[in-house]
Amino acid sequence: MPGNGLILAIESSCDETAAAVVQRGSRTLSSAVASQIATHARYGGVVPELASREHLRAVVPVVRAALAQANIALADLDAIAVTSGPGLAGALLVGITYAKALAYAQNIPLIAVNHLEGHIHAVLLNERESLQRQSSLEKGTGAPGLASETWDGSTSGDQPALALVVSGGHTHLYLARPAHGSWTYSLIGRTVDDAAGEAYDKVAKLLGLGYPGGPWIDNLALHGNPHAVPFAFSQIKTKLHLGGKPPRTKAARTAPIANLDPHFLFSFSGIKTAVLRYVELHNLRPEAEARREALFTGPDAPPSPTVDDALATCDLQTLDLIASFQHAVVGDLMKKTFAAQESLGVLRILVTGGVSANRELRSRFTAEAARRNLHVAFPTLALSTDNAAMIAAAAGPAFRPASLLHPASQPTPRSLSANKVKASNRLDRADAVGYFRGQGFQIGIEKPPLPCRNLIQ
Ligand code: KG4
Ligand code: ZN
How would DSSP label each residue in 316-371? Predict the structure, then answer.
């Protein structure tokens, strides 16, 4: 790997401005995140224009904080990585423009990273770091070393894995395979409408809870009966199974679902509607409005409401509804993920993205994996939600002399060796994106920008 392998990554795809420095894709030197939750909370979802403005305000200080925390200067960097999509167009533009400017000024490569690939690498980064810690403990050196063989994804932990990326914008299943020091991804399943995190956010909003909804529901679900409301998920049908009828939602119309096994397709818009019906049938709306006022909008609302504050506003019926909703969502994520695992025969599952922070999800996936004698891994809580360390980690395998092409090169796998250039050659973003797409670095067949979660348009 060129130089010291120091990559600065910038992530600005949705409502977090993040920067991180990671060495050789496997050692985190710093990770800074500026959250916009306070800005969007009052709207119950992300407002794209506000997100762009917040990114503009935060990107420079956050990058400075990441460099300071890593105790390095811009001149020490070997490459810049940036999230190129999917995400909000205006939000992405801020990170990409700043990353381009930095790469241009430093004359170093710019590496485009797919956000979903980043989420998958959050788990791999954690695994590489713990392997390094383990190996330095065994060697008795104390400090985590930088084994040169660990940066490119060739650790013993890097075996094919089924990756469930479950966040506010996505619920996607990929088969991730290490290949020549890098990774390839095949889409196995996905949601045909809402993402799981989006369902959490919308249900929380409906019940007068805060944004993002996941952590509120996670905490309150502990106090309810998960079997009180029997929510059911029906089997999703693909276009083929619909007998030629056009799919109902925009996401389903554009989704490449026809080629996927319908057993691995998710749908979360139904449960959202089922919760809404339950709320209406049991006349829970006035209570939800009162809760919103008591916690967030009323004159006596606390400056930062706690779970106990929320708990005090919830009767048992609401807590049971929350616990049942979560139980059903986690159950459906498990059912399809383990069905795909069984059908593919992989022995390793990665669950990542904001919803992977969920406690019930972690404990039930862990128990089921143990029952089946499989390995399941999650990112640390800090790396579950959006961050830039995962983007730098995903860029690690891409940043090798063999991976970098001259901007004028036409990438063809067979003539790769002829296209090798020195790492100091700067890649233009468009060339980098084109090249990495050509080399299969892009996940699935989605094109950025795609909608972020729960948007207020
Ligand atoms: O990965 P992320 O930060 O952003 C996207 O890429 O979308 O995920 C954010 C999503 C939100 O929908 C949020 O409600 C959900 O992750 N989330 C959770 C938890 N923490 C965050 N969902 C369930 N349980 C949690 N503890
Ligand atoms: Zn994300």
Answer: HHHHHHHHHHHHHHHHHHHHHHHHHHHHHT-SEEEEESGGGG-HHHHHHHHHHHHH
